[in-house]
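Notes from hallway chat w/ T.B., transcribed later so I don't forget. T.B. wanted the structure written out for a chain they're using in a teaching module, and asked if we could keep both sequence and structure tokens in one place. Agreed to drop them here.
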Amino acid sequence: MEKIILKKRTTCPTKDNLEYVRKTYGGKSTCILGRPSLFKGSVLANCTGYVFGRLMEACGKMVLIGCRPGNDFPGNAENWVEYSKQQGLKVGKTPKLGATACWIHNSKEWGHVAFVEEIYPDGSWLSSESGYDSYYFRNTQYPASGYKSNYQFLGYIYAPVEFEPEEKKPEYKFKIGDQVVVTGKLYKSSMSYSPAGAVTNRVTKITRIAEGSKHPYNTTGDLGWMDEDAIKLYEPDKGFKVGDKVEPIKNVSYSNRSVSRWDDYYYITELVGKRAVLAAKRNGKMVTWCAMNTDNLRKVG
């Protein structure tokens, strides 16, 4: 069976998507015009027009789901299962990627169809769909049973191709070579359940990233595997020293309390790590104001 990578659709088709435009308007669809029409010649809003177009878009060719044998146009949504069986297509009760879900309204007067875009671990799935005389496009999460209020679920129609989800690599905040500060738990392996130790304010460099693991980062000297929330980028010392003339960026003390500002600038009188004691000149003497983090300071000319 042909295998096709399915790129999940989460946005409404535009007029340059010819799979959603009637043939009589230069498109590829044989469906009726949508109501209200999204644009001239559009088969949206309409559930059958959307799914028929989505199948063509996903497969790169027309797929005769919901069509009577010998015809290339789909019938009403509630008839899609029966017509698809006549085309030799398989129907079942288990959701599959790229399948078409089909319902009939409790009134038996109309139906609805939707396209299976993604399947979640619990069996529920994400649709893409449109609604006649209603909405142009939306994504909806359904249970595996296909339950839909006021409708009876008729089954999933399986396309004559095998869809595979688009592979997406996880995004990582840090990269190999980044100089970082680590404060947190360390693990013996990237998949360990229990920590083997911990560090505080350890300056090091990222040397390895184990993609898809529980604790993806390791650093210089095989410090241990760690989570992203234990890491922050290292910011080099700004080169402050006792006697520097500085101004606060924010009026917040080293203990993270708001303080009232006396003057436009101050002098550093004590400096231990990032804790700087600030003072202002009063009558030729230095009068201590407060302590601040050097990250919250900038030098004054």
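Follow-up for T.B.: DSSP finds two helices and 17 strands in the chain. Might be a good example for the class.
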